[in-house]
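input
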Amino acid sequence: MSDDIPDGQAPGTAASTVQDPREARRVGRRALLWSAVAVVAWAWFAYLMVTDYASASGGSMCRGPLIDPAYTEYERCRDSLRQWPALLGVLALAVITSTVAAATLVYSRVLYRLARRDGHVMWPRD
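output
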């Protein structure tokens, strides 16, 4: 065998699945960050859907769109963030960030398992 092929590896295959075991930790941290962003987006969506808010005229309180959808029909309760197009935009943001968080978490777990399979020591307890 030539000197450029690692021991125990067939010629023509990739040198190593995971060269740097720290990559799995970096991706894992990104997954946690995306998860935090997703939680904030879902909390914002729930807040906009459920909580009461002041009317535009400053008079009485208006109910959240999930609690009483009829309130959004009144002129005095029209708020740009409480209308359905904006709410659907916030919902889309929450779904997209949740999907990215899940995909990143799965990718970090795959990297972790590949690094463990290759004999690298992972996730040291600092």
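quick obs: Residues 22-117 form one domain.
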